[in-house]
Amino acid sequence: MAVFESFLSVVLAAEGGYANVTGDLGGETYRGISRRWHPNWQGWVNIDAIKRQRPIRHNEIIKDSNLDQLVSSFYRNNFWVPIRGSQILDQDVANVIADHAVGVGIDDAVKLAQWLLTEKFKIDTKIDGVIGPITLANLNRVNPRKFFNEYTDLRVDYYKYRGNDLTRDIKLDSVFKRLTGNNPSTSQGELFLKGWLFRMEKFIKKKVKL
Q: Structure pTM?
């Protein structure tokens, strides 16, 4: 079974520390947690207390064990538990789905997995954005290496779609539009495409030839 700690190490390596980047819709963030989208996260109390004493450097990882625990709980409760990560047999499969959920939300990340199961693996799976017992069983039925490879490629194409990158697989545009409701060629997508693709490098390196 997959373990949460592996996913946490992957996502924190990608998210870095403190940031408040102009143009980022998430605004002020710490370890990938957006103040705009998660204003009630308890970690902001710790961060605000530090900011009253001194400026926080860009990408700084604050040494605070209580803050570390709040970060861990955030990712466990908001991403790992909803995708039922600890019940997925393969660690890489759990990691790649949960990591995508961090960027696009549980609903869209799970819908991509369910679409893959239905269209690529020919296992009829309801595309509802929820990992229930049937989706979970289907995930654990398929060849994990093949699923990981396919999902990784799909993520790359999705990011290229959002960034209006002309090297994307155009045939998938209608799939992404139908599953996520998002359109290509957004200023946000074009601005952050390089970072999104950089995030995918660790997953691409894990791909294996079948």
A: 0.92
Region for 140 from its dihedrals, namely left if φ exceeds 0, alpha if ψ lies in -120 to 50, beta otherwise? alpha
Residues 92 and 74 both lie in one domain: no
Does residue 6 lie within any of the structural domains?
no
Q: Determine the average pLDDT of the residues in 137-144.
A: 98
The Cα–Cα gap between 193 and 84 comes to 28
Contacts of 56 (CB under 8 A, 6+ apart): 18, 47, 50, 62
Range of the domain at 151: 87-210
Average pLDDT, integer, range 60-76? 97
State the first-to-last Cα distance of the chain, in angstroms, to the nearest integer: 22
CA angle 19, 20, 25 (to 5 degrees): 115
d(CA 68, CA 24): 23
